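Convert to structure. Protein one:
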Amino acid sequence: MDTTSPRDGTVGKALEILDCVAGFGRPVRYSEVLEQSAHPKATLYRLMQTLTNQGMLAYDSERHVYSLGLRLVRLAHTAWRESSLASIAAPFLDELARVGESIHLAQMDGGQVLFIDKRKTSARYETLAEAGRVAPSHCTGVGKAILAHLSPARLERALRQQSFMTYTPNTHETAESLMEELEQIRADGVAFDREEHELGIISIAAPILASNNHVLGAISIATSTNRLNLQELTQFRPELLSTASDIGAAAEAWQFPKTN
């Protein structure tokens, strides 16, 4: 569906295509984009070629799929670092990193989570989450922590934007199963990634809330299953919740883009 105004011209069409590719939450074939686009086949192909040439899209010639390009990720990373929670949260993340595990800070954009900062405290394992990287919300600790605290209207919109792609045997495959867990997250105050996005990686996450309970983002403590199990990870719950609360309080007087 074409949502651009005639006044938006080529730039508006290009941004619509980028939104479409990002909405899949995974590398996508040209035919899949074509199915969702109102543009003629030749026009869509020309625009996607231009976006690829400019580094806004990346094309894998072996798998014949498109994904968001590194140029776009760099631009997004810079924009969010300058106008997001990153600068506010930095000292609090430094303090939390003393737990000795990886710390992630994320916000939601277009139904996905964008990691805007990270503290890596161990060279013995690594997670996919890096500052500037986009990840699905339905199978990440930070994503579920944010989803659980969205207003009903915003949650409904975010759920429509989930691909529910299966990354591991533990990944939620439907909105119904995810909703059940979101209710539990609201009651517990924390969310867990139970190897849902990466096998061998688990995390505990907490939402960052403003005083009116508007969710601003989320932070997580992630580790390898070779180091800790989920029960052992729970020991960090007090520090995690305290840090999330401190960031939320510090953000009250700061103006930055709201999550979708």
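Protein two, convert as well:
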Amino acid sequence: MKVGVVGLGRMGHAMATRLLAAGHDLIVYDPFPAAAVSLGEKGARVAKDLAEVCEGREVVMTVLPTDAIFEDVVTKPGGLADSLPKGVIHMVSGTHGLPLVQRMAKVHADAGSVLIVANLLGRPERAVSGELGFITGGPKDLCDKLQPLLDAMGSSFIYAGATPEAAVVCKLANSFVLGCAIEAIGEGIALTRKYGVDADVFHHVLSDGLFNCVAYKMYGDVISKEDWGRVGATVTIGLKDTNLAFEAAEHNGVPLPAGEVYREHLHACQAAGESDLDWSVMAREQFRRSGLE
């Protein structure tokens, strides 16, 4: 397929690399030109601006870190709304707020293009290995059209429903539950450490027992080793995603009391200068409050 990729951070760069290796015709763009150099060396065409990354494409994928950047890329003069050919799909793979996605879907519809959400599940290393999960939302036939791209980048695929917001709210809720799991792991390790149990032992109790799953294995390992520099999502990104979940919840009158606990810990980590560490460092705040640091 003829694909454009906008946003070449750790996730976007890894995803673009997978698309290129799968033989797709790729144009890439990032406001920091250095981010595109290695992809250009591997055969991708490097666009000088957003208009060029849209030329002749069937799909343009964005992997952007914040709502503000996402809105700017879509709506500014020469942005995606201005530049995408009629009927072309904007595949949104960054995590963004529900009201903003709804507004941007309308902007695209008014311009004659289409916004489809294909939200990601997985840390950067899973993007490198092509083992991401995808949650898609939008008209089923258009989501199905994206499957050759998803196959190149992922290993599991869930269709959430006929609207983009169906995928958005599933991703936000998934991130919320993961935050609760990280908080619970931290609290469990704090409790067992206070009784002299090695953190790695309790990690194995969890991951070899009732919680034998990717989240508890991966984050349990990070927390038990206190390897906060093994960054998947930073505190800044984790807090952003958490706030987006609260925004969606408040919009429809849904309380998220468990989220208040770990959001408070994320704020404390931010205040402690730990914004660029993995968001599982919220467990370290639990350790501090438990007298373990």
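The mean pLDDT is 97. The longest helix spans residues 164-194.
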